[in-house]
Amino acid sequence: MPNATEEPGKGESRRWRGQDPADRIATRRRQLLDAGLELMGTIGAAEMSMRAVCRAAGLTERYFYESFTNLDALQLAILDEVVLGARDRLLTALADAPPQPDKVFAHVVTRFTDYMDEDPRRGRIMFVESQATMALGERGNQLIVEFTAPIAMSLAGGERKRNPPDEVDIRLNAHAIFGALAFLYRPWLDGALDISRDRFDRHATSAITELARARSSSPGRLPAGK
């Protein structure tokens, strides 16, 4: 007898319970992503299994392979969803930030803290599980720059004429900012830092703003990377 969340195996091309086949596939994929996010954000990627994900989603294994080739593919999709969701939140924050340069990053940090606080599982997935396996580590390293480079470039804007960053400065600052975020947000989200949200946001703003100003380039002397 099929699970209550699944349709019978026959008649896949027909509507079932008011849904077209494509809609049913999308619904099942979302169930798997939600189940995977819960497991990845609580027990961790290394302890996950395809069977555990299917049990949590209320689906059989054949539906897992309908959307994902293997467990790595699911975990990568979850990582992308969390990190790119954070990136989009930050880009939106940059777009509607106050015009005063000294207030820009305070605004961005507040919005990022909102994103983390809405679902603390996001913090573990972004800052811990992004390096839990080889596949996640490779993708995580790609996402670090994509996630933080817009912040680094935005913060560098006020100093570009006096002290312009090169591409390596921006990339290194992106990694430095991500590392700072990881070691600031993880203990705060876990409750290990007994400080107010306002104090936390102010300190994160100060620390990350300073990191974004770091320079190792020598304009006019050495090419990027030297």
CATH architecture of the largest domain: Orthogonal Bundle
Beta strands, count = 0
Helix content: 55-70%
How many individual helices? 9
Mean pLDDT: 85
Q: List unreliable stretches of 5+ residues.
A: none
Tell me the β content: under 5%
* CATH topology tier name of the largest domain: Tetracycline Repressor, domain 2
Give the overall shape, derived from the CA principal axes: elongated
First-residue to last-residue Cα separation: 65 Å
Count of discrete structural domains: 2
| N-to-C series of helices and strands | HHHHHHHHH
Largest sheet: none
Keywords: DNA-binding
Pfam families: TetR_N
Domain HTH tetR-type: 26-86
Protein name: TetR/AcrR family transcriptional regulator
